[in-house]
Amino acid sequence: MLEDVLYQPGERIRHVIFPTDSFISLITPLSGHDRLEVGLVGDEGMLGASLVLGVGIAPTLALVQGAGAAWQMDAEPFRHELRNSAALQLGLQRYLYVVMCQLAQTAACTRFHVVEARLARWLLMTRDRAHSDTFHVTHEFLAYMLGVRRAGVTRAASSLQARELIRYSRGDLTITDRRGLVAAACACYAADRETYSNILH
Fold it and tell me: How many helices (H) and strands (E) does the chain have?
């Protein structure tokens, strides 16, 4: 279900999840109610990848961002399959490398890029995992994800809408000009896409 918490940071990983028609936000909670999204998991990856490193503890908060179908497997059978499949080990090691790149890119993006460009990048990344130009997201949720105040998200979304790149009403968002949104996004989106293309495909 949308916004269901799948893991809390520091919690033991009891199962792994492979989204097929859904996607998951990886979030680092900060002091108080602050939090920042540091990654997204869609049908290109899995939740619980730290098991590949032999660590059975969740490093981040995992929150369902796009509701839909997913495969779930208990951690112990997954470990067994991992030990006995060199192909699975190689595939997931490559995926972990991509996740590390995404985390590093997000850290730099959050520090150096303006909210409007970061919002455009986030919308494109979400679209890639939702496989749809339309999805539901509130300003409040976007503010949490981007680590900014709600007023900042409102200004950025209004600007993108004024440029006719998106249409937004009562939480329902539609990307109306993907090419224009790519141009509005920071270079981090292209860097993410290149890493996924080079490593996972």
Answer: 7, 9
